[in-house]
Structure formats: C-alpha cells, structure tokens
Amino acid sequence: MALTADPATAPPGAASPGTDRETRSGQDDPASLEIVPARHYARWAAAVAVIVLVAQFVHGLATNPVWEWGVFRAYFLSETIVQAVWVTLQLTAYATVLGFLLGTVLAFMRLSSSPVLQAVAWSYIWIFRSIPMIVQLVFWFNLSALYKELGVGIPFGPVLWSVDSNSLIGTIGAAVIGLTLHQAAYAAEIVRGGVIAVDQGQFEAAAALGIPRLRQIRRIVLPQAMRAILPTAGNEIIGLLKGTSVVYVMSIGELFYQVQVIYGRNGRVIPLLLVATAWYVVLTTLLSVAQYYVERRFARGAGRTPPPTPLQRARRIVRDLRAAAVRRDQPAVPLKPLGESR
After folding, report:
1. Cα torsion angle, 145, 150, 153, 159, sign
2. What mean pLDDT is predicted for residues 210-217?
3. Contact residues for 224 (Cβ-Cβ < 8 A; gap 6+)
4. pLDDT tens figures, 295-334
5. Cα–Cα distance, 129 to 103 (Å, whole number)
6. pLDDT one-digit tens code per residue, 56-75
7. What global pTM score does this model have?
8. Distance (Å, rounded) from C-alpha 252 to C-alpha 240?
C-alpha cells in the first residue's frame, strides 16, 4: 500500500510539494531568467591597441617636419603634376581597352575546338606572362635596333610599302604596345575563367534554340560571365594603373617620372613621393567606386533586392536622424482615460 503525505500534516518548516513544484517551474521559465551579455575583453583590448597605433601614426604625420606638408600642398595640384596624372590615365585607358579586347580574342581562341588556335593562344599567354613588363617596354622602345623599317608586302615576297620604325612607333606608342601586349595575356585568363564559370546548360539551351554562335557569346555567355570577370578585371586594372610607373625607363612624363625629375632638382624627396602616393590613392579610389557600381549593375539578375549603395545608406541615416529630430520636437499628447467620451 502506497503512503501519501498530507500537506496539512507536514512538519513545521518543511516546504510543501506544491510550493516546490511552483519554485522549480519559476526557475525553469525562460522569461524569468536574467540575460547577461558576454564580455569580450580581448576584443576591447585589441580595439584600444589599434586605435592607439593609428592615433600615433596620424600624430606623426601631422607633427613630423620631414613630411614638409607645405611642399606637398605646393606641388599636389601643380600644372606639371596634373599633366603627368593625365598621361598616366591615358596609358591606363589605352592599355585596358586594347588589352581586354585582345585578351577576349585570345580567351575564345583557347576555348576553340581548333588545336592550332589553342596552341597559338596558349603560347602567347605563356610567353607574355613569363617576360617582365619592364623588359617588354625596353624591347619595344628599342625596336628600331632590330627592325630599321616596317612595311607591308607580299608574304615571303617584295615589300610594297615601308616606313621608318622610329617615325611609326614613338615613345608613347611603344609604351602602349608594351602595356597592351602584357595586359592581354592576363586579361585572356580572366575572361576565360569567367566564361568557364557559366553553366554548360546555357550553351546547350542556346544551341537548341538555333541561336548563332556569335550571338550566343555576345547576348548570353558574356553577360553572365561578367559577374565572375569584373572583380578580377577591376583588380587587374588597378594594378595596371600603378604599373604604368614602370614606363619611367622610357622617359615618358607620367606621374612617377615627373616626381623623380622634380625631386632630382630640389632634393625634396619625401614630400614629392607623398604627392605621387596621394594621387595614386585618389585614382585607385575612383576606380574602386566605378568597379562597385559596374558590378552592381551586372548583378541585377542575381538578387531581387540588391543591397543599398553607400550613398543610399547615407541618405537613409540622414532621413532617420531628421525624423527622430521631428518626433523629439513635437509636444507630447496626453492620453485620455478609457471611460472619457470624445
């Protein structure tokens, strides 16, 4: 026979079973538990250390007289430096456009079914990726030592028209040719990687619909491949912008060469190198912003609601701050009792 304890006859000071169950249920209730945020002491210490280091660096920039900020301000927007920046942008634009056009052709030659086209494209990419850019530029600059004249004629036959190499290919032309041929080798692999990233079913569906091969590439393959091409291509263009400084060996008046000429005359090496650095930072930032918006445009079909741009985020923050200020300035409306009629 089971014995049960009567709560009324429980000894003095002993908790009744019902009270014990209520206490346990109160302790197990998630709403009654206190939420204690985690303390990330190591993260706070690292943040403080980084802030101190950044503050020391900025303080050194502002107080160290070696930087000569007056010389920096005098030359940053000078006519010579601005013209040199324009030459740098021209070299970058020419090499980017021509290099990616040639690289696209080479990429599809590597993807071709013809073994001859594949071998030629692979050999070109192998050779021009193996030779340093500065060697290629010096070679094209001294092309007249190898070929006195360049002409057009019958293959393995007489020359019908010829011209002196120096008059046909000047210093700027040699720089553009060297940068373009060097850039095309890398652009070919970038474009080929983007085309390979497109699902094979897209090719099969386009072929089943009877779409011509050229239209398949132009209207179906390349628009989808651009999402994979653009990040690497943008990085390559930024690298090319900084790589144009190599043409100083050809005495072309681009940014780095002009900075060298100026500090060779006045001896102010540090502030003039800072001028070149600041201009490269500005140009790289502009290219990065352009890359962001181009990538956003080609990603329209990937998501229904693309993330807001930094400008849209800034506008939203300003709008929220204005709305909060309006709500704060409005007088509080007293609440009416429930039983009071209107």
Report:
1. negative
2. 81
3. 198, 202
4. 888 776 655 566 677 777 888 888 888 887 777 776 655 5
5. 12
6. 999 988 888 888 888 899 99
7. 0.74
8. 16
